[in-house]
């Protein structure tokens, strides 16, 4: 799904980040810093950006390198339509959600994201799926870090539709009328179809890759 240079660049960045976290020998630290610079050059050369800008992003990462965590919500209306937002960043439709925040549990993260992006207050009731961001369900993009994404089924308990600085539209769609212009790196048609399946069959187990 993704070009080799991107996979290799990520792997080198993770190796360098973890090495700089634990290495105490100055020569080893210099070698890991050099590996980080090479990873930045690989990504910058192909993406058409300055290596220094990429290396600054890498240098800001600390600690053992692990995948980042995103959260997305499937919020269904009584008639079975699913809540979606038009992302202000790319003008495409997605399930509401975003990054999990430090000091928030997964439940708190998704309930906050839905409230901020749509105006609806929700309660998360089921973790339906944990998908790898680089799996077959998404289109590849030039993202420098690996991501896991958690998909929750949520129930509306209050609020009303309202856009935010991140969303330009908020709407419900029946399964047969999901928009074609999806922000598929956030939530693809595969993701949405699986969440409809979880609504129809509440006893389905959590899916993961």
Features:
209 residues; alpha/beta; Nucleoside Triphosphate Pyrophosphohydrolase; 2 domains; 5 helices; 8 strands; 36% helix; 26% strand
What is the count of structural domains? 2
Question: Which architecture of the largest domain would the CATH scheme give at its second level?
Answer: Alpha-Beta Complex
The sequence of SSEs as H and E is HHHEEEEHEEEHE
The strand order across the widest sheet is: 4-1-6-5-8
Mean pLDDT score: 92
CATH class of the largest domain: Alpha Beta
The number of strands is 8
**C-alpha end-to-end distance:** 15 Å
Strand content: 25-35%
Count the DSSP helices.
Answer: 5
Radius of gyration: 19 Å
CATH superfamily of the largest domain: Nucleoside Triphosphate Pyrophosphohydrolase
- The biggest beta sheet, please? 5 strands, mixed
Q: What is the helix fraction of residues, given as a range?
A: 25-40%
Low-confidence segments = 136-140
Shape assignment: elongated
């Amino acid at each position: 799904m993704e070009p080799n240079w991107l996979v290799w660049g990520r792997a080198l960045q993770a190796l360098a980040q973890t090495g700089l976290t634990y290495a105490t020998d100055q020569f080893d630290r210099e070698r890991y810093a050099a590996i980080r610079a090479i990873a930045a050059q690989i990504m910058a050369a192909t993406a058409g950006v300055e290596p220094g800008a990429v290396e600054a992003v890498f240098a800001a990462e600390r600690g053992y390198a692990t995948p980042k965590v995103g959260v997305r919500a499937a919020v269904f209306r009584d008639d079975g339509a699913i809540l979606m937002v038009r992302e202000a960043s790319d003008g495409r439709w997605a399930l509401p959600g975003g990054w999990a925040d430090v000091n928030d549990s997964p439940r708190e993260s998704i309930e906050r994201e839905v409230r901020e992006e749509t105006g609806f207050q929700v309660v998360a009731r089921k973790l339906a799926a944990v998908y790898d961001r680089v799996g077959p369900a998404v289109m590849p993009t030039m993202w420098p870090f690996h991501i896991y994404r958690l998909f929750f089924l949520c129930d509306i308990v209050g609020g009303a539709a309202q856009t935010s600085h991140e969303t330009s539209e908020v709407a419900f769609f029946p399964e047969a009328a999901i928009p074609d212009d999806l922000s598929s790196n956030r939530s693809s048609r595969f993701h949405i179809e699986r969440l409809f399946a979880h609504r129809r069959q509440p006893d389905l187990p959590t899916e993961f890759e």
